[in-house]
Amino acid sequence: MKLIASVVLVCTALAISACKTTRTVEEVAQEKAMETKPSSLDVLVFLKWKLQSLNGSNEVKGAGGKTPYLTFDKATKKINGFAGCNNYFASYTADENNVSFSQLAMTRKFCQSGMELEASFAKTMAEVKSYKIDYAKLFLLNEDGNTVAEFIRD
Questions:
Q1: Residues 138/121/74/144 CA torsion (nearest 10 deg)
Q2: pLDDT of 18-29, one tens digit each?
Q3: Are 143 and 49 in contact (CB under 8 A)?
Q4: Same domain, yes or no, for 54 and 94?
Q5: Looking at residue 73, which CATH number applies to its domain?
Q6: Are 8 and 45 within one domain?
Q7: d(CA 9, CA 109)
Q8: pLDDT in tens, 66-102
Q9: 55: burial class by Cβ within 10 Å (0-12, 13-18, 19+)?
């Protein structure tokens, strides 16, 4: 009788300890999701980016003191934003390292200031071939891998 009671006690103890180490599928999935960082592409298309420098110049205020910005629409593969005087839009292609834009289409306002910045911005966007994200900064790079535009998340 003591032997049967001892076996039952050991089996019960093993069953209880096994239950404590068993995780549900949901718990494992949640743990994995927390370990996984978002991809560069997800960060790129999720945020609004405000221009910090263009071709090495920090003079990036457009008409009315407004700073150019860039937003991505993942569903339509379009970008839009403000270029210095006018609003713009274009299509884009992107993967984890590369990004390119079609020619920017813009509204046709005339501004006393911001037109030079806008022309430089449009020309620079046409040269972009890849990107790099470092925490809250987006670096757009040309074919040689040089930074041509730097944005911060807005």
A1: -60
A2: 555 566 666 655
A3: no
A4: yes
A5: 2.40.128.270
A6: no
A7: 84
A8: 999 999 999 999 999 999 999 999 999 999 999 999 9
A9: middle
Half-sphere exposure in the Cβ direction for 18 (13 Å, CA): 6
Handedness of CA 72, 154, 85, 54 (dihedral sign): negative
**Domain range for 72:** 40-153
DSSP H helical segments within the chain, as ranges? 2-21, 25-35, 40-46, 115-127
Q: Are residues 44 and 103 in the same domain?
A: yes
* Residues 6 or more apart in contact with residue 127 via CB below 8 angstroms: 142, 143, 148
Into how many domains does the chain fold?
A: 2
Range with the largest mean pLDDT of 31-40, 41-50, 133-142? 133-142
**Cα radius of gyration rounded to whole Å, the chain:** 26
pLDDT of residue 38: 74
Band (39; pLDDT cuts 50, 70, 90): confident
Query: Which tokens belong to 99?
Result: 């990004």
